[in-house]
Each structure stands twice: as C-alpha cells, then as structure tokens.
Specification:
The complex is a heterodimer of chains A (401) and B (639). Chain A has 401 residues and is an alpha/beta fold. Chain A is built from 16 helices and ten strands. In chain A, the strands form two sheets. Chain A has a six-stranded mixed sheet with strand order 1-7-6-10-8-9. In chain A, strand 6 and strand 7 form a beta hairpin. In chain A, helix 2 crosses helix 5 and helix 4 crosses helix 5. Chain A is globular, with a radius of gyration of 22 Å. With 639 residues, chain B is of the alpha/beta class. Chain B has four domains: 84 residues, Ubiquitin-like (UB roll) (Roll); 122 residues, Alpha-Beta Plaits (2-Layer Sandwich), CATH 3.30.70; 124 residues, Rossmann fold; 219 residues, 3-Layer(aba) Sandwich (Fe-only Hydrogenase (Larger Subunit), Chain L, domain 3). In chain B, the strands form five sheets. Chain B has a five-stranded mixed sheet with strand order 2-1-5-3-4, sandwiched between helices. Chain B has a four-stranded parallel sheet with strand order 11-10-13-14, with helices on both faces. A four-stranded mixed sheet of chain B has the order 12-17-16-15, with helices on one face. In chain B, helix 9 packs across helix 11. The chains are: A alpha/beta (401), B alpha/beta (639). Chains A and B meet through helix 11, helix 12 and helix 13 of A and helix 2 of B. The structure holds flavin mononucleotide and iron/sulfur cluster (SF4). Flavin mononucleotide binds next to strand 5 and helix 14 of chain A.
C-alpha cells in the first residue's frame, strides 16, 4: 500500500528543520533546560498511551544508575498505522536527532530502534543514515564536542508480534526472550532493558521533541488543545478518496478530518486501530484529542456498504491471534468475545449472553496484565453499543431474548 | 533455596524485588497503608499479597506459589488500588509508597469470578474422575466463588492426547490452566528446562522441546512440577492397580519397603498437620491391606552408608597413598534418582564421580529377591517387591535396565506417598487410628542415620557419624553434641563443612580391615564435604567444580534433586511448601533423636548381614554384584 503523505499542511512536525540542528543546540542547553521546555510543551507520548514525555524523561534522568538505555519504539503494529514508516523513511533526521536529544537528557549511552520486522527493507538506508551521523559527530563520542556525551544507536528488527510493541514486551524481546509483557511496577524508567533505567518512546514522540528543542515549548503548546498540545500524524485508511498520512493539530473534529480526506457516506470511524473505539455518525463532531477520541494515529473509515459485524470480527480475530497468551482474561477472554461475534453472525445468541460478554469485556479492560488485553475489548464494546441497530436489527436472535 | 530473591527468572517473569530493609524501625523502613479502610504498617517492599496474608485477609491465588518467582499471570489476586485505572495483581505489586487497597469490591469480585469462569470454560475433565479430586486449587476456587454454572460454556471434547510415555510423570494438558508453575519449577527451581510455554493467544500451551513426549526429553522425573500443579494436569503414573492385583493373587508374595519421608508426610493425606510421623501406624495399615512383609528402607540406607563410605575410603586411599590419578573425587552421592539422571544429562563427564552404590530402594530390591527369598524359602520369581517413596523418579529408577541384579526386576513398583495414601483409603483404613507395629524380620528396625536420609544433609550427616567413629575411634557425640551435626541441617541451598580428623586415629574396624591397613595416612587430614538440594543448587556446585573452585576440593558431596531433600519429593502430599518441608524435617530429626541406635554401623542387622550374607565385606565381589551399579551417559539431546 503506497499512501500519499500530505505534508503541506504540517505546521509542527513537518515544519522546517535542518539535520543535526537540535543536536548542535544541545551544547548550549543543560538537561534541565530540555526537561523544562518539554514540560512547558506538555508533549504526551504518541504511541497511544499518552504519558507525559517530560515526566518519563525526568524519571529516567533522575534514576540512579551508571547504565541507562533509550529505545525508539518503531514496532508500529497497530492495524491501520503507517505514520512511523513515513517519519523513518522521509524524515529520519527528526527521529534520530530526537533520540540523541533524549539520550542527552536522560544520560543514556546506548539507544535502540526496535524496528517492525516488515520494515526490514528500510534497514540499510537507516544504517547509512546513522553512519553519516557518526561521520558528522552527531553520534559516537563527545557528540558535537560536548565532553562526556557519548551515544550510539543500534537498530534491531522486531519479531512480528503485535504485543512486542508494548514497551515491556519489547524489552523482553530485545533481551532475546519470548515477547511477553512484564509485571508493573517496576516501570521501565526504573528497571527496563537489562534491569536498567530505560526510556521507551514512539517514533513520532522523538520527532516532536526535535521541534520543541528548536522552537521552544511555548511555541509547541500553542498548537492543538490545552490538554493535547502540538499536532499529530494520522494514518488514514479505508473508504475515502485520499488515504494517507496527515499532520493535523490535536482537537481536529472527526467530521473535519473526513472532509479533508474526501470520505463520503461514512458510517463509522474506528479511531485508534483495533484497540481503539468505533464511533458512529452521531459522534462525528467529537474531536481527535487525548481527552476525547484518543489515538496513536490510526483512523479507519467505513462507509455505508460495510458490515460492522465483519469489521468487528476482523478485530477480534486479530486479538485472539496476537494475545501473548500469558494472562487469563486476555488469552481466553478474547476467544470468548470472538465466539460471541460469531454467534451474532449466525443469529445463535441470546441478549443475556451478549450482556455477559460485555461485562467480561469490562473485566478484561481492568484485569488484564498489559495494554493489549486492556484495550482489546474496546472495539467489541463500542461497536455493539454504537451500531446496535444494525447488529441486532430489531431481532433478538433465534432465541428471542 | 528458600530465598526466592536470588532466583533466575524465566522469560517475562522477573520478580520485582524491592529489598526489604533490615531494620524496619529506621525512617522509610515501613510504609503505612490502608487495606479495606483499616490502617497497617508494613515493611517497604512487601507485596500487597504478603501484606494481606500477614493481616489475615484472604486473597485467592493460583499462579502464585511460595517456592516460585512471581508470574502475575492468572490475575486472580487482583485488588483495587485507589487512584489506579486498572486492578493490580497483588502478588506482583511491591508496596513502596502509602496506598489504599480494597480487596473485595464488586469490581474485584466480578473480575475474579470471570477469571474462574474463563478457566473452567477451557478445562476439560470431570472432578470425580480426576486424581486431584478434593485437592484441586481450581475446584476450591470454583467453590469459594460459588460457581454453580458454566457462564462461558465448557469444552466438551478433549483437546490433547495424554502423554503417559514417562515412567514417572503423566501430562494431561486438557486440565492445564496455564499458570506456568510447572514451567517456573522446571526452569528456575530445578534448572532443567524441559517445560516451556509455546505459541500465542488461544493456542498457548505448555510443551516440551519440539513437543516430544516426556520420555524422550531430558526430564529428570523429579516430579516437582506435579507437586506444584494446581490441577490434575500433571500427576504421577499410578501403578496402584497392579499392586492390588498382586496382593489379590495368592501365588504372589508381596513385600513392601517404606522410606522415611513418606512416613513423615502421609499423615497429611489423612487430615493431620505436617510433621506427624506415621512409621509404625503405616506398618499396621500395610499389613492389613495385605502385604506379606513390611521392611524399613532405612536398613538399606544404613547399608548404603557402609558401602558408599567404604567406597569413599577406597577412593581416598587410592588417591592419597597410591597416587592414582584416575580416581574421581569428590565422590557424589547416588541415592537420588532425579539427581543421577540430571548428572547423566547435564554433566555426563562426571559420571565417574558418582558413587557406584545403589540407592537404598534398589539395594533392598536386590536383597529381597536373593537373601530374603532364600531365608523365607520363596521363589524370587513369585516375589513382588514394592517401595513407598516420596519420589516419582523412583518409578523410573526401578525400571532402569541395570536394576535386575537379582536375576529379576529388583524392585517391581515404586509408589509415591500419594498413591499409598490412596490405597490405604481404598482399603477403608484411617491411618492415624492404626495401632503401632514393628517392621518385619529379618531386616528389623534400622538406625536413625538411615532415617535422616529424608532431609537435605541427612545422608552426609549419617556418613559422618560413621566415618568419624571408624577413623578416630571416638564417639561422634564427643565432637557433635548428641551426634546432631547441625551445620548440615536446614534449608540453605548449599551447605559446606570441614571436619578435621586430628592426629589421634583409631584402629581400622574389622569390617573394612581387608581394605586399608591403618589410618595413619589420614592423620591431620581435613575432610571437606558439601550438600546441595534442588538441581538448581546442584548446578551451582557442578559449575564451580568445572571451574576448579572450592567445591572441587571437596571429598564427598551429597546431592538431592528435590528442594529440601526427599521430604520435599515430587511424590509427597500436595501442597508442599517451605513451611511444610520444615515440619516434615523436624519430624524426622525428632524421631532420630528418640532412637537408641543412631549410627549405621551400630545397627545389629547390618552387622548380621555382613556376617551371614555379604561375608566378603563392603565393596566386595558380591556386594558389587548386588548393591552397586553403573550409569549411562545421556547428554542434553536425545535423538
Ligand atoms: C499491545 C500494544 C502494542 C503497542 N504497540 C506500540 C507500537 O507499535 N508503537 C509504539 O510506539 N507504541 C506501542 N505501544 C505503546 C507502548 O507500550 C508505549 O506506551 C509507547 O511506546 C511509549 O511511547 P510514547 O510515550 O512515546 O507514546 C503499544 C502498547 C500496547 C499495549
Ligand atoms: S493482556 Fe494479553 S498480551 Fe498482555 S500479558 Fe495478558 S495475555 Fe499477554
């Protein structure tokens, strides 16, 4: 799938930036200066969970350890996201310079890019890019002449499991183990890779940092909403004329986005990928923002011809396959939800049982061990709620109630 | 061993251990928390589960086990922590800041019920046809949460084939709830690593290397996984039906030997607390069931001490006096069949270090079908020889092809404590109410030295009681108060001890006079010994020996495959926990102290058998034929 990148309207991420500038600027900045600008910017993680980046970096910076690590999460496994690919391919300088800034701030000497297995084709060009950075002293020892600031980046290919995008499973995978989420606490900021303080951030988070360093936190937070500052890359797919990657300020209404991408007769929009929520027409005036419809960037558009039960079934099949299988609610729960969808498909259901499954979904949201199981019931719950007319169609299944 | 903090955790299951402050009275040493609106103060780093247990608040658990590192995967122990969006697994949550916990809110109860429902939906099999009926943690949870229907259905058909290829362990994956206790047992506790989770999502299952049968992988048969399985997914291969058949066959002469550890634990199967020795009650019960004779394995434990001790003296003499470079030292004990197989797989190059002496079970087997058969005038082919053991590996051991030195299978059946309890119950006998009876002649009762074989360090203690007296001519009591060698007791993973022989040596006892002329060569020597229990600890010693470290300087090392030694064996009553192991060991040591004869060489029956039967003495031709064996290089990969 080759999607167009619409960078013309990009006011933040795709604004002007020259390779290496942010790194060069570090010689005049202390760690505290960077943390301060980040705090003012109110930047939140772009990987989905929306954790304040300044807090994460501050915690890692404050952790007492000789050895710290920085990881760029480029696993991009959420169905319907491909914005990290665009950043890595077309704006490697934003990502890598952002990582160098991160390393400077938290005090890491070693960084990893955990690259989605399917992106292997970009490996050599990314390696080349890193080599140029080393040649220009943007990586390596005493970066840009800053004494004692040594940092290098290694790219590792992921194993193709969705759960490996979850930061602790990612770390397990980096350590050479089966990709399974760890118990938290401890959080990676105190015990991450090899048990050392580790910061894990999304590709886009690093790219945003670069602009904050260059233009200031104050400038950054003017974009977007009060709680969701800056802009966001959206990976748009589905029934529309212009699918692709868009940079839009946070706070954009779904209806506005649909307008931009040329979506007609839209019935449903899945915000946030398989683990996100599905909204219907009556909710198109809602905004894309952490405080409203939060997303790591995936927007899937479905028009009137789509069968929402099929859509849901696809998502549930995805989770049944991608659950790492260690914890009970997620391992068995997703299978049960999928079975429920199949019952609905064949009309072999009772409302009582579907209600039981909804309750089960709520348990999965709070009792699963990691974000995968905690978010996998979202589409089940939101589709059954927002498209109940279509799905139940006034019938009550073969059994009437 | 009893300290989980040092455990290497397997994939994804790194225990998060916040070191608890040594002195909780210092500032920051404790944290004030609230559980269900009541205030408590707990040491920093206590998990929520520990805090609740400490304060008698019950939290259901399944994947948690006191012996194992934290997994946090079953999610049954979830609780609400104020301010957190999701529920927290109490087993995996170390308290480092003041928090408010609620353990029984509607949300928590519903989540737990859901989890139980989900497990039941995938659990194939019915309680009344399960070995773990009435002792199953899943069943207990279903009861605790009032499960009266299958909310999310129930599998109707078996999904997996039962793997009963092994002599010892049967895997019935239809009953597996994926708590991974067996995986953690095999990887961390035993460092064998036969079991691991494979696949993902709904396809996840516990499997072996390349999904081979258990008989075809490097399983050491220790059965520790059985002991930690919350359900009936893992159990021993039950041979009790064959034994009933033999008992009912009047042409058969069925004899049984009982090991000390089952006797110290079998009461638990009859509702007694841990730590009640049932030795003599068991004798009565076994006779009533229909066994023709009941013998004490401790008799051959005493014999093992003489044979193995003599072997050690021969090795030392060869090495020190004859300067024979071929002699393998340190000598390793060989009475734990799990350990023997572990060595055969992982350190086959050290097989020469293993004592060639058979285990007490197998020595007895060979004597029963030779010496005893002659004595009572029964044809050995008509004897069925049974052994009650705390151990599942004993089942494998008695089936080793080497173990037919009597001309027949030396021991026909190894029974676990659990199987024995089942047979006794089936016979309508309530064990604790039985009168006491002594063991049958010609072997009679044994010494306390044989008895303490059951606890880690026991073999070594028994050996030293004899060696000290043999070599110095003094009483063990002169050196160790009441002949209790305390440094070798307790549950420290690895124990080490040095025993200086001094300059006063005694005369060589008659029994071994033909082997060494005098003890002068041992004057001033320091005997170095070590003890390890659980193969993870055994591995530590073996790696040290490979590096030429401190343990390579030892003369004699006791290894037991199971944590705690035999009292914690894989055939013992379930549950087995650190606390329970401690009580069982106490029972054994108490019984030892109550006995008059507490040293193997003082046992009159031992003296007699060397006069009447093994009259060429220990390590002689006949003893080698019947009481010693050889081992097999197996390696890590089985073709
Ligand atoms: C199942 C699952 C998959 C995830 N996949 C990704 C991913 O592909 N890329 C990503 O950046 N974050 C992913 N995350 C979120 C990460 O766990 C983590 O929160 C994120 O990398 C933190 O970076 P940020 O603070 O910059 O967003 C995933 C989370 C879960 C639960
Ligand atoms: S929630 Fe799912 S993916 Fe996460 S730990 Fe549990 S089983 Fe694995």
């Amino acid at each position: 799938m080759k999607n167009k990148t619409n960078q013309s309207n990009g006011k933040v991420l795709f604004s002007q930036y020259n390779r290496g500038d942010a790194i060069k600027k570090l010689s005049g900045l202390s760690r505290e200066d960077v943390l301060y600008e980040l705090k003012v910017s109110k930047l939140k993680g772009r990987g989905g969970a929306g954790f304040p980046t300044s807090t994460k970096w501050m915690l890692t910076a404050a952790a007492v350890s000789q050895e710290k690590y920085l990881i760029c999460n480029a696993d991009e496994g959420e169905p319907g996201t491909f914005k990290d690919r665009v950043l890595l391919l077309e704006h490697s300088e934003l990502v890598f310079d952002g990582m160098v800034v991160g390393a400077y701030t938290i005090g890491a000497k070693k960084g990893f890019v955990y690259l989605r297995g399917e992106y292997e084709y970009m490996l050599s060009s990314l390696e080349d890019f890193l080599e140029t950075m080393r040649n220009d002293n943007l990586l390596g020892e005493s970066i840009c002449g800053i004494k004692g600031f040594d940092f290098d980046i290694e790219i590792r290919l992921g194993s193709g499991a969705y759960v490996c995008g979850e930061e602790t499973a990612l770390i397990e995978s980096l350590e050479g183990h089966r990709g399974e989420a760890r118990n938290r606490p401890p959080f990676p900021v105190s015990k991450g890779y090899k048990g050392k303080p580790t910061t894990v951030n999304n590709v886009e988070t690093f790219a945003s940092v670069v602009h904050i360093v260059m233009k200031g936190g104050e400038w950054f937070q003017k974009h977007g909403t009060d709680k969701s500052t800056g802009s966001k890359l959206f990976s748009v797919s589905g029934d529309c004329e212009r699918p692709g990657v868009y940079e839009l300020p946070w706070g954009t209404k779904i209806s506005e986005l649909l307008e931009i991408i040329g979506a007609k007769n839209t019935k449903a929009v899945q915000v946030g990928g398989a683990s996100g929520i599905c909204v219907n027409k009556s909710q198109f005036e809602r905004t894309l923002a952490y405080e409203d419809c939060s997303t790591g960037g995936s927007i899937m558009v479905f028009n009137e011809t789509r069968n929402m039960l099929h859509v849901l079934k696809n998502f549930m099949e995805f989770f049944v396959e991608e659950s790492c299988g260690q914890c009970t609610p997620c391992r068995i729960g997703n299978t049960k939800l999928l079975e429920g969808v199949e019952m609905l498909e064949s009309d072999e259901y009772t409302f009582a049982y579907i209600n039981k499954l909804k309750e089960l979904g709520k348990t999965m949201q709070i009792a699963s061990k990691c974000g995968l199981g905690q978010s996998s019931p979202n589409s089940f719950l939101s589709i059954l709620e927002n498209f109940k007319d279509e799905i139940f169609n006034g019938r009550g299944g073969k059994y009437g109630k | 061993m009893e300290n989980k903090n040092g455990l290497r955790a397997p994939v994804s299951q790194k225990p998060h251990v916040v070191p608890k402050p040594e002195d909780t009275s210092t500032i920051g040493g404790t944290v004030s928390i609230e559980i269900n609106d009541v205030k408590y103060s707990v040491p920093l780093g206590t998990t929520i589960l520990e805090a609740c247990r400490e304060n008698h608040i019950h939290i259901p658990t399944l994947c948690h086990h006191d012996d194992l590192c934290i997994a946090g995967v079953c999610r049954l122990c979830v609780v609400e922590v104020t301010g957190m969006r999701t529920l927290q697994a109490s087993c995996a949550y170390p308290i480092t800041a003041p928090i408010k916990i609620k353990t029984s809110t509607p949300m928590v109860r519903k989540a737990r019920r859901h989890i139980i429902d989900l497990m039941l939906s995938e659990h194939h099999g019915e309680c009344y046809s399960c070995v773990r009926n009435n002792n199953c943690e899943l069943q207990a949870l279903a009861k605790e949460y009032g499960v009266d229907c299958y909310n999310f259905g129930h599998v109707k058909e078996s999904q997996y084939e039962i793997d009963d290829s092994s002599y010892s362990v049967v895997r019935d994956m239809d009953k597996c709830v994926l708590c991974k206790r067996c995986v953690r047992t095999c990887i961390d506790l035993q460092e064998v690593g036969v079991l691991e989770a494979i696949n993902r999502g709904g396809e996840t299952m516990i499997s072996t290397f390349m999904d081979k049968q258990l008989a075809d992988v490097i399983c050491i048969n220790c059965g520790q996984c059985i002991n930690r399985c919350p359900t009936g997914a893992l159990h021993e291969k039950d041979t009790s039906d064959d034994i009933w058949k033999a008992i009912d066959d009047h042409a058969k002469h069925v004899v049984i030997q009982t090991a000390p550890s089952p006797r110290a634990a079998i009461g638990e199967e009859f509702g007694l607390g841990a730590g009640h020795s049932m030795t003599y009650e068991l004798n009565t019960a076994l006779k009533r069931i229909g066994f023709d004779a009941v013998f004490d394995t401790n008799f051959t434990a005493d014999l093992t001490i003489i044979e193995e001790g003599t072997e050690l003296i021969i090795r030392l003499y060869k090495a020190l006096i004859e300067k024979d470079k071929e002699v393998a030292l340190p000598q390793f004990t060989s009475c734990s069949p799990g350990w023997v197989k572990y060595l055969e797989h992982f350190y086959p190059e050290y097989i020469p270090n293993l004592s060639s002496a058979k285990s007490p079970q197998q020595m007895f087997g060979a004597l029963i079908k030779t010496f005893y058969a002659d004595k009572v005038g029964v044809d050995a082919k008509d004897i069925v020889s049974v052994a009650v053991m705390p151990c599942s590996a004993k089942k494998f051991e008695c089936n080793r092809p080497e173990m037919e030195d009597s001309g027949f299978k030396d021991v026909d059946y190894g029974l676990t404590t659990r199987e024995m309890a089942k047979m006794i119950k089936e016979a309508g006998i309530h064990l604790p109410e039985m009168p006491k009876t002594h063991f049958d002649s010609p072997f009679g009762d044994a010494s306390g030295a044989g008895l303490i074989f059951g606890a880690t360090g026991g073999v070594m203690e028994a050996a030293i009681r004899t060696v000290v007296e043999f070599v110095t001519g003094n009483k063990t009591e002169d050196i160790f108060e009441k002949a209790n060698i305390l440094p070798l007791r307790g549950f420290e993973g690895i124990k080490y001890m040095e025993i200086p022989i001094g300059n006063n040596v005694g005369p060589v006892p008659d029994l071994i006079k033909h082997l060494v002329p005098d003890w002068n060569w041992l004057k001033g020597a320091v005997l170095k010994v070590a003890v390890a229990h659980g193969t993870a600890n055994a591995k530590k010693i073996m790696e040290d020996i490979k590096r030429g470290g401190k343990f390579s300087e030892c003369h004699f090392i006791e290894f037991m495959a199971c944590p705690g030694g035999c009292i914690g064996g894989g055939g013992q009553p379930i549950p087995t926990t650190p606390e329970i192991r401690k009580k069982r060991a106490e029972a054994i040591y108490a019984e030892d102290e109550s006995l008059e004869i507490r040293k193997s060489h003082d046992n009159p029956s031992i003296k007699k058998i060397y006069q009447e039967f093994l009259n060429e003495g220990p390590c002689s031709h006949l003893s080698h034929k019947l009481l010693h064996t050889h081992y097999k290089k197996r390696g890590r990969y089985i073709a």
